[in-house]
Structure formats: structure tokens, C-alpha cells
Specification:
Strand content of chain C: under 5%
Number of helices of chain B: 6
CATH architecture of chain C: Up-down Bundle
Largest interface: A-B, 47 and 50 residues
Chains: A mainly alpha, B mainly alpha, C mainly alpha
CATH topology of chain C: Cytochrome C Oxidase, Chain A
Order of helices and strands of chain C: HHHHHHHHHHHHHEHHEH
Distance between the termini of chain B: 59 Å
Oligomer: heterotrimer
Number of domains of chain C: 1
Chain lengths: 211, 138, 538
Amino acid sequence: MAQTKYLAHHFTDLEQQSESAKMGMWLFLLTEILLFGGVFVAYAIYRAWHPETFINAHRFLDVRLGTINTIVLIVSSLTIALAIRDMQLDRRKQCMRNLIITILLAGVFLVIKYFEYSHKFHVGMLPGKFYTFDGIEGTNPHIFFSIYFLLTGIHGLHIIIGMSLIAWMLLKVKKGHFSSNYFVPIEAVGLYWHLVDLIWIFLFPLLYLIG
Amino acid sequence: MSHTSEHKNHITPLWVYYAVGTSLLFLTMITVAASYIPFSQFTGIGSLNFAVAMIIAIIKATLVALFFMHLAYDNKFYLFSLLAGILCLLIFIVVTMFDTQYRGLINPEEKTPIIQQTAPEQFVGKKHHEASQEDTHH
Amino acid sequence: MENSSNHTNYLNATKGIWSWLTTVDHKRIGMMYLGFIIFSFMLGGFFAICVRLELFTPNGDLFKDGNQYNTFFTLHGIVMVFLFIIPSIPAAIGNFVLPQMVGALDVAFPRLNLLSFYIYLVGATLALAVLISGGVDTGWTFYTPYSSSIGGPVIATGLAVFILGFSSILTGLNFIVTIHKLRLPGITWFNMPLFLWGMYATSVIQVLATPVIGITMVLLVFERVAGVGIFDASMGGDPVLYQHFFWFYSHPAVYIMILPAMAIISELVATFSQKRIFGYKAIAYSSVAIALFSFLVWGHHMFTSGQSRFAALVFSFLTFFVAVPSAIKVFNWVATMYKGSISLKTPMMYALSFLSLFTIGGLTGLFLGTLATDIHLHDTYFVVAHFHYVMFGGTVIAFIGGLHYWWPKFTGKMFNEFWGQVGAWGVFIGFNLTFMPQFLAGFRGMPRRYYEYDPSFEIFNQLSTIGALTLAVSFTIVGINLLVSIFKGAKAPKNPWNSLSIEWQTESPPVTENYATTPDLTYGPYDYDKRQAARAEG
């Protein structure tokens, strides 16, 4: 069995190792939920305090671009799930293809984000004390953009991390490190990627579709 | 321990993945469309749009979690821990809002931000007390 | 009693500093943590002594001004909380003992374990750099708007806390998976040592709560850098919101501190009473209950901060529940001792200290949890005394007790029992002398974090400072006793305390693989009655 060389010395078999790895990744995902959660708390509280401002401010976000990004991430979640399925069936080439598509879609997401951000920089819709835009009615409009940039910025950072992890998995698949007997690292990265998608599923309506 | 190998070998059929993916895209369209419908005008309930958006988001998240992330087929512990994490976050949001939303519920003077409160009569005009006006609630 | 003194063990299996720096052996990682944790304790203690020396007199005569004093108590708090107490028992003792208790060769993710050690070092180094560059004077709680607006290395300190938090998260993650997945067949959830239940509950809190302090520090950094306006009123934010964020982690954090201590006490009380622990399931479930309840009560640190009275009522009400599982444990430990064959060796002295000191700490928490009395006691020395009784009289005492208990396993040597007793008594007396007067001072109204105070509080402060110096001397005795034992101590047998927990079946010190042969699971860790019966039958 080629995969026994990947069995660590303290595990009795690959199954125990795989299940441990999966459990570890799920626990790590919990920490990410609580990490993002903090900013969601800030969002909830400030939206409850300044509902009008949030409604007025969010109109300056581009719903079309946001929708496209949502579609992009959903499809990327599908492709990475398919990639793992391919590895379960020992279809190395298809797995690699799906991983590449996932990375490309993530790249599209970042490009669209770049356009959104640069537009905002251009008009002065910046977080906190850098905010200079004049045209939103309501109290403390800069807080909406502070929270917008915090949420999407930290999310974007996780997209970049996710892309790197998927690229790393791509390399390992290419080198033949995985098979239907052992592929849990790809599963773990897939879980991470799905979480990034999950967070966006909530971010999108909360930021782009208020009222 | 052999029963767990069935979990490992479970290969989700292709159609399930495509069905979930299609549903997610469909639900996305619904969410966007629903955001343009002013539910509050029809029903008089203020935050109905928010509730609708959140319900759809939860359905989408459930689909991703159960099928893409395999929770429907895997060890129940993973599902349990995900729910525990979400519960923890909900406690954080809800109980914090017990504070932020209900200031002034029991004593009315809490409702105005401290900076905007006017000082009690005896402190007005006395120079050395001016600095401590904002300290009354610290 | 003879033990092969030159057998290959985890300490000498491979040689050279590089073999230690790149080790994945949980025992070596635990010992490396131990060194830095003890250093942090001494550093935090140094700041404490400085604070207590200043407070010997009512006037501010030691420090050049109040800000310098504030810096010293801030650094005392930061070092003690983040560099010492949160990692202490899990990283130093847990890392070593936990895999052995489940019968495993290592934790689930040994390389992650090494990584979390290095993350700890990075965070600790950053904190030390902050210290050397003059420190911060915000209090270890970093309340806004002071922390979001003053100069000084607040950002670096926030980053240090963020980094140290990651180390804590990864340790907790590792432990949860280890306990779930690496137990030997035959070791079940309800016959494993209660130490593991305590560590499991701790790890759950570590995984769920620590990310929140992480994001809080990130938000604080952004508040300073970009003025985002979340926590600072001048930018439209709410300072009380910062406190919610901070305490959402920091309250469960105190249970990260006490649950491992309670975990140790379960082991000490059973072994040194040579008796089955009373109410195994009650203690196990209480550990989980404490972890769950800990997330519901954070607002009791904020009764006078300006949060809504409604929230204050809810928090006060819930706070009373969190005391119940802790009390259940104390009753069960005492019941374990009843009709036990009690041995008053040094570790047991610490366990007994814990029982009395933690009880006092816990009971005084009730006054603080009650809204009406907390209005008067908040920000007084009553609070300071309360949390030192639970964190120091609880966690640190249990930590030192556990250190003595497992010392023969860690080092293969026995410490001197006489000096161990001297140290234990010195710590107990010194501790009470330091902190009991603080209850009285606080009750009479002495505010905390003040470097000058009304002369009517002088006698309490003087007693407290003398107590602190007594503690310093006593800890020196404890430290020297343990250090000397490494070189001059008697060779330790496999099981000097006659415990039934399976880690005592390893050699002292253990081989790298922990168990030479599969551990004997005839007896569960608390089956003292069964063993006695078997011996009686001959």
C-alpha cells in the first residue's frame, strides 16, 4: 500500500489518522466562525442603532457585482466538492482540473473585489477616519464602511489563504500523494473553502441587500 | 471501528452535487429579487426583509454544510460541533443586544448617550465640576 | 524501588539542543513550555512585588508617577494572564500527561503541538519587547477609549495577545482530537481519569472563546490605525461594546484557568486518599456544565460600566448558576477524602490548600455577582482579592501541586519532602497574609489600581506586602527544592504515590514511546476499592 508511508507513527491506521484530521479541521472552522462572528456582532449592533444609515449607505454597493461574486463562490464550492469526489474515484486528472477551476474562480472573485474597492477608494468611501464621501444621509455613515471593509477584507484574506491551500493540494495531487485510500488533506482544505463560501452567503445579503 | 469505514467510502452521487449547486444559484436569485420587494409595506412588520434574507441564507448554508461539507453522511460529532459554534455566536450577539438594545428600559436616563446628557443643576456653572460631568456613570 | 537509572528515556533519547528544538515528542514540548511558564511566573511576580512595595505606604514614593505604577500593574496582569496562567497547566502538564492517560504515543497532531509552542514563543517575545520598550499602562483589560487613543505600543501588545491566543487554540484543538480519537480500546469516556474531563472542557472553551479576543484585538488595532469608530465614542462608537467583546473571551478564560486546576485536584485527592473518587459522573458533568455556563455570564464584569440595567439583571441571575457545578466538585472531593487513607505528602498539601482557598474565592464571587453589592465592591480591592483567591489560590496552587505530583515522572527524581512541606506551608501562609487583608481593605472602600491611598487603609496594605514578600521567599524555597532534586534527588520509582492512573505504569522518566508494552487496564484510575479487595483475597 503506497499510502502507508503517510501513516504517522502515533496513529494505528490511516482511518484513525483521517478521522482525526477531519475532526481537527472542523474544530479549526469553529474558531473561524467565532473570529468572523465578532465582526458580525459589531455589524448587528450598529445596524440596529443606525438602521437608516445602513440602508442609505448600502445603496452605494454594486448588487450586480455582489451577485456575480456570490455565484462565483457557489460554483467554486461545487467544483472543489467535485474534485474531492474525483479523488475518491481515483480520477487524478479530473481532480486536478476541478481544483484548477476552483482556484481560477477564486481569482475572479478577487478581481471583482478589486474593482469594488478601487471604486470606493476613488470616491472616498473609506473606513473610519479616512471617510470623505459626502452624500449619505444618516448618523455616522463611516461606521457602515468600517464594517464593510472589515468584513470583506478579512473574508478576502481568507480567500487568498484558501487559494494557496488549494494550490498546495493541486501540487500534491500532481505528485501522486493521494488516492481513494487517503485524501483527507484535500477534504480538509475543501472544508475550509466551503466555510469561506458560507461566510459570504451571509455577508452578501447583510451588506448588499439591506431593505 | 469498522462501521466508520462506510462513512469514509460514501461517495456522494453526482446528481446530488449538481442539484445542490443549482438550488444554491436559484436561491441566490430569489434572495436578490426578494430584497427589492418591500415586505414591510405589505405586512407592516418592519424587519421582514431582513428575516426573509436570513432565512434564505440559512437554507443555503444548510445545503452547503450538509452536502458539500458532507455533514449529512459523516460522524454526527462534526454536525454537533458546528451547531455548538453557531450557538455560541448567537449567544454573543443576542445577549450583547440585551445591553445595546435595551438601554433605558428600566431607567430612562440611560437612553441618551452620555456625551449628550445635561448635567444636574448644581453642577452647572461650577468650573471644577465641569470635567466630572461625564464621569457620573463611570 | 530500584529503577534502572541509565535507561534510555525521553530526556536522553536524542541529544543536543537541535533535537529539542525540532522535537515532536509531547513530553519534551511540555517541558520546554514548563521552562518558559516558570520564567513568566517569576517575571509577573517581579511586577507584583514592585506594586506591593509601592503600596506599603499610602504615598506614591516608589514610582516616579502614577503612569509608571499603572504600567507595572498592567504588565503584571498581561504576563500573568497571557504568558503564565492560560498556558500553564494545559501546555506544561497536560501536554506531558494527557497522551499517557489515554494510552497513546503522542497527541493527535504532534507537529501542530510544536507549532503552538513556537507561536507561544513569538507572542511571548513580542510581549517582552513591548515590556522593554516601556510597556502600556491601560490595565491588562485595554479598555477603550484610553487604549484606542493613547500613544505607546498598544498595537504590538494587541498583536502579542492575538498570537498567544492562537497557541492556546491549537493546544485545545489538539487535546480534543486526542481524547476523542486516540484512546486505547478499554479506556472509555466514563472510566478515564477526571483529569481528561477537565482538560476536555478547558479545550472546548479554548476553541470557542479565544477567537473572540483575537478579533477584539484586531478591531482595537483597526480602531487605532483607521479610527473605524466601533469602540471610541468620539468616532461614533461605544466603549461598552469593547467591554462586551473583551469579556466574552475573558470570562470563559478564567474557566480555562480553573478547569485544569480542578482536573489536577481530582487526581491528587483520589491518589492521596487512596480511594475511589466520589461522584465521578457528577464531577465529569460539572466540568462540562462549567464550560457551558461560562459563556453566559461575561457581563458581570460590567455592572457599573453603563450597560443596560436589563442586561445587568440577566447577567447577575445567570452568574449564580455558574457557582453550582464548582461547588458540587468541592463537595465531591471532600467526600472522597472521607474515610480515605490520607497521606499528607506535599502534593496533597497543595490540594488541601486549593480546597480552602478556592472555596473562599468562590464564595466571595457571590458578593460580586450580586448586583446590589457589586455596585459598592466593583473596582475595589475586594475584587482583586477575589480573583487572586481563585486564580492564585486555585490555579497556581493546583499547578504547583501537580508539578510536585508528576515531578518524579517528568524528571525521574524525587524532591525533598521536608522542604516541599516547608514550601507548601510558606505559600499557604504567605498567600493568605497577602490577600485576606485585601478583602477588608476593599470592603472598606479602597479602590484598585491606585498607587496612593487613604491612610486608613495602611495596615491592610502593610500586611499584604509582608505576605507578598513571604510568598516570594516561599516560592524561592519551592523552586530551589525542585531544581536541586534534578541533580541531587533520589531516583524516583515508577509509581511513588501508588496511584492507579495508567501514566504511572511508565518508567520514571518515561521512554519516548511512553509505554514499552501496552498498559495494563485491569484497574480503572479510581478502582482503589477493587485493588484493596483483590489484595485482601491474596
